Amino acid sequence: MIKTTATLLLIAGAAASATSADEQIQHSRERAAIAEEQTHLGRSLKRLRQTMNVLADRLEAEGRPRAVELLRGGIEMLDRRSERMNSSTLEEVMENTTGLIDGGQLVRSIESQESIIGELELLLTILMDRRNLESLEEQIAELKELQRTASELAQEERQLREDTERLRRESANAEQRQLEQQIATMLSEQNELLSANEEAGRRSGAIELEQLERELQELLRNEQTDSSLLRDWNPKETKTLQAALPLLREARAAEDSAERLAGAAEELRQAARELENTAHPQSEARLKEMQLRMEKLAQREDRHQRVGADPATERTAAALARAAELLESATESGASDPQGSQELEELAQELTDTATDRREDAAMHRDEVDSGLEQLAEEDTAAGAVAQAARSALERAAEASERAQADTEDERAPGEARFETEAATLTLQQGLEDLERLSEALSRSQADGSEQAERIQRGLETTQQSDRPEGQEARSALSRAAEAMRQASAAARNSEAETAARAAEQAVEELQRAASAVEGMRSAAAEVAQEEVGNLAERQESLAENARSAGALPSQGSMDKEATRQTEEAMERAAEAMQRASEELAEGRSAAAARSQREAQSALEEAAREARDGVVPSDPEDAQRAEELAQRQEEIRQQILWLATRAEEREDTRQAKASLDRAQQSAGQASESLESGDLNQAEQEESAVEQELNQAEEAFREQTEQYQELRAEELLFQIGEELASMLVSQQEQIAATIEIDTVRTPNERPSRAQRLRLRKIAREENSLGERAGELAAAILGEGSLVFGEKLRQMQEDLEYIARDMGEEGEFQTGARLQSQQMDVAESIIWLVEALAREQQRREEQQQQEQQQGEQESQEQPEPENRLVPNEAELKLLRRMELDVQEAVDKLLLLYPELEGDPYDIDPLVLNDIQRLANRHERTSDLFEAFRSRLGIPAPGEVPGPFELPDLETQGDPEEDQ
């Protein structure tokens, strides 16, 4: 027995050892597999990093800065050494985790893997452009604080500006106030006189006639100019100029040829000298260089000869080619070549003689041109002016040519002769082009004048003086002038100079008659105006005298020297303009007087402005107040500096920082102006400070809205994820409930195991209800009433389901409870889809705003500052009411007894009906709240202006089911 027992113990021990060994082998294999998988994840992370780098470069080339910024941020995150990972990068932690797994340190490897998961979630958040809610709320709070500070500083600056303006008003002495009052009185009276003059001029037609008279005088001056040009214009003279042009071109060609010949001769002489002097140490190199030069020159002359067919050019090319051959032979032999040198000298002399002949040819052509243009140049015509300019250039060319022949060492003379010949040619050519355009220009000018004469004629027909004899005469003369100018236009276009000149002279005569008649019409109208305004000229004269008398007041006021000088000068200009207006009124020239009156008005306004802005503190008390204001301005500047420092610490407030920097600079200048007593300048700079602070506040506000939008997007994302998780859990509970109900005996108490499972499902449903309540509180806090109410209803439904599945509800699992569970799941689906649509709408709106310009974006309405817009809330509100109606229809279908005796109805069904009634009442309350939010009047109320959201463009709620 003992032996058997021992044997059994040995067998058991061996079996245990074998089992332990098998387990160790299995665990080792599992660790190896996990380590291999961890290594694979490490390699995948490295490939991800490489892909991000490549993608960032490509997107940067495509011009997508936001996507590049996200990728760069993700790469920076991978390179960062996090403290929670022991100052290691993510890749290093993955490698270390693999070692921990291989070493069997499972606890530490799990901790390391948890930190890796956290970092990967952070990487995903960066790449998906998601922000942490707490971080976003901190950013929003900080930006709101900066915005509030900028607003408070702007209000302080506005108050400071108002106090400065008050000090400026109170610093004026009695003489200053008297000056400002007198200027204001004169300005008011001048405005009255101007209005009276213009009104009288309009009624009498004098102003309109003066305008027509000015236009007529301008037309007359233009026509006199055209008439003078037409008298001097002789198209036949252009033939003389045209005949001279070919001769000038031949002279220019001869000068070009002579200069090239002379240059080639000099090159040949230089080559001849090289052939005689081969003893020089560098003679071989110099001969080779000279040879190449001669070959290039010979080729150039060949090209000239092919283009111009000049025999002299052909001889020049041959001589240069011969020089190249002699130089090549001397290079090869290395000895001097006196015979070749002599030959080149002779060729050079031939070219020099030919150059002299060509210069003589050029001189002959110039003389011929000069003789042809001599008589024309004496004419006082456009063609004569061209001929005279061309002869002057030819004279200079002849002088240069004579110098070149007399002094062969004067290297500039040949070039000057060619240049002046070229100048004469261009002058003649340009003159011919201008004369050809003159015909067209004169024709167009006469046509325009004809149209202007007809316009003036039509204007005269509308005046009150048109029926007078002067009016009839003026209209007739203008009609004849228009016809004459049309004839002159046609003649000029056909180069009929004499006909055009006669027609233009006739037009001048007719315009003069019309001008005399219009002057008579204006005089008659002026008499009528004088009768209406009476002593208007005398009143204007009196006002001018008052302005001159008030000119001494500025020196007695409390202004600085510059403002005093500016005020005095403005007062003097006003007095002069008033005196001129008085004289023009006396002469009956209402329009001219109105211009002078407006000039006086402008000068008085300038004087008033200088007098108002130039006031400086004149007593110690006012100076003390100015110093106090300067101190306040300095304190504001220090606060702006502090605010700018805060803004500089952030990368997203650069625009606000720029405005704050400008505000700080203007604040410093305003403080200096206050200290120096320049109150007007201080006001302007204070206004600039206020404006920059308002711009900074606006920049802070815009950045705050961007972060609020990011926060809303992140909140929508998190709520959507939470709802998706709840949907999965709810579907699991529905499946478990159906499974229990399928095996459960109807109308009997469930078994103990079934009750345990039902209690677990009830706990899960109750937990889902708590999660729905938390989401409802969060979304209601964002101002989304309908979404929040839907989640509250879901919370109530889940609590009822949990109660009915428990002891209190007698462990219900039937069709009624399953229907309630499915209703909850369907509600979650609706909410998930609604939030997904809102996310998509926000993304599309962002893309649209990026495509639109800045101005178009500003024209868009302000976005609603809530998580879900009114349109989506109203659609869900309608869906909730439809749900109530559908639930009622379902109850009537499931429980026909509802149409019979109410005492036979199941209490549970009555409870469901009561819940539906409460839900309908709460839906009605939500609609009332929305009607109030949107400004929609209640039934029976007086309709007021409101905007109803366009639900048609947002889709049909029926389709959103």
Describe the fold and architecture:
This protein is mainly alpha-helical and 961 residues long. It folds into five domains: 2-129, no CATH class; 139-171 and 619-699, Four Helix Bundle (Hemerythrin (Met), subunit A) (Up-down Bundle), CATH 1.20.120; 175-204 and 535-613; 237-380, no CATH class; 744-848 and 865-954, no CATH class. The protein is 83% helix and 0% strand. The longest helix has 65 residues, at 679-743. It is extended and about 140 Å long. The chain starts with a helix and ends in a 27-residue tail after the last helix.
Question: Key features?
Answer:
disordered C terminus; disordered N terminus; 5 domains; Four Helix Bundle (Hemerythrin (Met), subunit A); single chain; 961 residues; 27 helices
Annotate the secondary structure layout.
Layout: H1 2-61, H2 65-79, H3 90-102, H4 106-127, H5 133-170, H6 174-204, H7 206-232, H8 237-276, H9 283-308, H10 311-333, H11 338-377, H12 382-406, H13 412-461, H14 469-493, H15 497-533, H16 536-550, H17 561-586, H18 590-613, H19 620-648, H20 654-676, H21 679-743, H22 752-781, H23 785-805, H24 815-851, H25 854-859, H26 870-894, H27 907-934
Helix pairs in contact: 1-2, 1-3, 2-4, 3-4, 5-19, 5-21, 6-15, 6-16, 6-18, 7-13, 7-15, 8-9, 8-10, 8-11, 8-13, 9-10, 10-11, 11-12, 12-13, 13-14, 14-15, 16-17, 17-18, 19-20, 20-21, 21-22, 21-24, 22-23, 23-24, 23-26, 26-27
